Amino acid sequence: MGTFTRVTIDFDTSHLLFPTIVSGVLALLGLAILIRDRRRIAGSAAYWRGVLARMDKMRFLGTLGLTLVYFSLMVPIGDFWPNTGLGFLICSVPFVFATGSLLSHDRDLKSLLPIAAISLTGPTFVWWLFTYPLFLTLP
Fold first, then answer.
1. Can you state the angle between helices 57-78 and 86-103, rounded to 10 degrees?
2. Backbone dihedral angles phi then psi of residue 81, each to the nearest 5 degrees
3. How much is the pTM?
4. φ, ψ for residue 120, nearest 5 deg
């Protein structure tokens, strides 16, 4: 009976539980879609060649690059202040600003001010919400 009433948490890996579950479910759903729609997907090659020729490669590749840098830096920066969520906050503010600026059609001061305001208030609110009312740690 003692083993059923004890809970041990490995804090080094506990934050990976839900992302692993969600990733597994998404992979299974993606595989099911690929199997179900394999003929339609195989017949759409010409369409995708046209899309790739017309796409805005700077925005697409820039967004991918920013996302990779964001997730790559969040944990190492957060390790300077463990269990405070400052890695999330410090990385999210420039990430939201850079992504918003990259995807914006106009990059004048009038367009960048709302992006700057959102990049400061959005991640700060999420950090505050997770840290204080919900008592959850972010990287």
1. 170
2. -130, 80
3. 0.71
4. -85, -45
Burial bucket for residue 92 (CB in 10 Å: 0-12, 13-18, 19+): buried
| Domain ranges within the chain, ordered by starting residue | 1-54, 56-139
pLDDT digits (tens, 9 = 90+) for 115-130: 999 999 999 999 999 9
Longest dimension (CA), the chain: 66
**Could you identify the residue written with the tokens 């003692």?**
2
Mean pLDDT score, 85-109: 95
Is residue 96 classed exposed, middle or buried when 0-12, 13-18 and 19+ CB atoms within 10 A define those classes? buried
CA separation for the pair 25, 14 (Å, rounded): 18
